[in-house]
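RETRY 2/3 - previous attempt timed out on the joint model. Re-submitting the same 230-residue input unchanged.
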Amino acid sequence: MKNVTLPPTEERLAQIFRALGNPLRLQMVRYMAEHPQCITGDLVLASDLAQSTVSEHLKVLREAGVVAGVVEGPARSYCLNVDTLRWLREQVAFLTQDLEACCVVEPVVSERSIK
Amino acid sequence: MKNVTLPPTEERLAQIFRALGNPLRLQMVRYMAEHPQCITGDLVLASDLAQSTVSEHLKVLREAGVVAGVVEGPARSYCLNVDTLRWLREQVAFLTQDLEACCVVEPVVSERSIK
DNA sequence: CTGCTTTATCGTATTATATCGATAATCGGA
DNA sequence: TCCGATTATCGATATAATACGATAAAGCAG
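RETRY 2/3 succeeded.
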């Protein structure tokens, strides 16, 4: 947890979480899941946002590796990056495994863990 | 995707993603997974940050429902909220299921989805 | 080459986040 | 009740994110 050198995996996972941590981008991801190979204009029409704003959100998703775009004539067709999403699912599964409820359901008396 | 009324579930999921979208908070979550019922001071010692900063990060995690704290004498013992993490895992699994690689591995020619 | 369509980028204003030091609140023990 | 230990909150500041309109870039049709 020290700031010394954060594992690149950790930074990358956080980047993906951050990309998905915006309701609009999350909706974009869902839209793309339902509409494979949709183009930017589709997402603009499906939202209330300016074209430039949608483009910026796509940039965030692209840089996080959540989506990928290919040139499609004058437009760009966007898709989810399945590899990234699979990796995310594994990481989340790993992060949430082997956890036992401690103080949520039934508060448990504990001793200080350090000094 | 319209901004009209975002489902509360979507906003909540985004909130959890946002909470986990910071490397330090992600590390805190891992620390808590390894050290059940640790107190705030443990997290402060394990980080390079000021106590107030750690406290703010805990607040973000708390408000997202990722962690829960119980009073433990003058200190506060923190734990992961297992219910939230399980819910997150389900949501991520749902989000990433039934996806087929489209333009990432092998670009596919597509037609416009709208108009 | 010239337009037309589509998308990305730039400049900018507003809002949110991160971090710290200082201070307040809370609890248990003397 | 007062003190020490622990944590939360406040105020300030710096950085990052969000959103828009305007403009640039890129590709295709003619």
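The beta strands of chain B are 38-39, 67-72, 75-80. Closing ticket.
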